[in-house]
Amino acid sequence: MIPIWEQRSAEQGSFVVWDYHVILINEEAEGCHIYDLDTWLSFPSSFDDYIQKAIRDENLMQQKYHRKFRMVPGTVFLEKFASDRSHMKAANGDWLKPPPTYPCISTADASNNLADFISMDSTVGVGSVMDLDALIQRFSKR
Known about the structure:
alpha+beta, three-stranded antiparallel sheet, two-stranded antiparallel sheet, 4 helices, 7 strands, 20% helix
């Protein structure tokens, strides 16, 4: 469970606890920017601004709320990610919320590997898993 502030699902200044959350980090010559479709913050946000306002310092949080991040290059994500949207359905098969209008995403190898992408076990899936300190060290301009 990961707390994130400045999300549209909560009042401004409050936080949401997600089971997982997807953002895009774009590296540019002038710095990194974060694209988060669910934030109240600017779109895109500078990496440092997003970390300060949405992710925040973990020092005062219980250990179970410390975040990890699976970093997957965009080309790998587009090549490997698949979701049949089963995570969006209740046990009886009804949609929890209306699904997107575009088709489910699949690859030649998979129809649903979402669990591999949201797993924070570094031996599972593609990309690399890092903690908040490593993420900041990798992408921050400070």
